[in-house]
Amino acid sequence: MVRKNKNQDIERVGSILARLGARAGTMYAVLSQKNMFGTRASPTLCRDIYLQINGHPSPSGQLPSNDKWYFENGFRIIRSSRLLYLAWLWRDHGISQAYIRSMLACEPVDENGGPPGQIVSADRAWYLISHMLPSMVMATRMKNITPHIRLLACRSCGNPTIARPDNRIMTCPACSNKKDVDK
Ligand SMILES: [Zn+2]
């Protein structure tokens, strides 16, 4: 049996992440999660992959860390809800796999470049999924845990929608817009 080259796996998945626009810091976080590969990516390798795919160095600066951003308009709420819900469905595969599958379902990439006009960037999607998914999984086991962002079914259409801990009932942006139009 031929052993698979683990670095090759890292480079392959890293290239997908770079096409999705994930910065080197996010790429490193995704690729160094437990259960992702038998070996870990290095920050240097992640920067190299980013440069190779995008033709310019990975932008520096802070990675996202703001929960409020996801709630600031209807487009963000709908896209964030979809990303988090898909990751939730794939939660048994681990955070990294759930994230990559969820991103690719929302933002398919082709060989010619990344998807245009992402509503939630690859970095923001990683923040959302890596911070909220584990606490959502814990919350189903232990009642005293409340994630900062979780999913509630829209009371009108039933679609899973991101919600704050103090939200008890949710109406998704699509349904609340419809209500405004019907008035
Ligand atoms: Zn709805």
Key features of this structure:
two-stranded antiparallel sheet, 2 strands, mainly alpha, binds zinc ion, globular, 7 helices, 50% helix, 183 residues
Give an account of the 3D structure.
The protein has 183 residues and is mainly alpha-helical. The protein has a domain at 1-60. It has helices at residues 6-19, 24-31, 43-54, 74-89, 95-106, 122-141, 173-182; strands at residues 150-153, 160-163. A two-stranded antiparallel sheet has the order 1-2. Strand 1 and strand 2 form a beta hairpin. The longest helix is centred in the last third of the chain and has 20 residues, at 122-141. The chain is globular. Zinc ion is lined by residues 154, 156-157, 159, 172, 174-175.
Question: How would you briefly describe this protein structure?
Answer:
With 183 residues, the chain is mainly alpha-helical.
C-alpha Rg (nearest Å): 18 Å
Q: How does the major sheet shape up? A: 2 strands, antiparallel
Cα-to-Cα separation, first versus last residue: 67 Å
Shape: globular
Question: How would the blueprint of this fold be written?
Answer:
Layout: H1 6-19, H2 24-31, H3 43-54, H4 74-89, H5 95-106, H6 122-141, E1 150-153, E2 160-163, H7 173-182
Antiparallel strand pairs: 1-2
Helix pairs in contact: 1-3, 2-3, 4-5, 4-6, 5-6
The structure holds zinc ion.
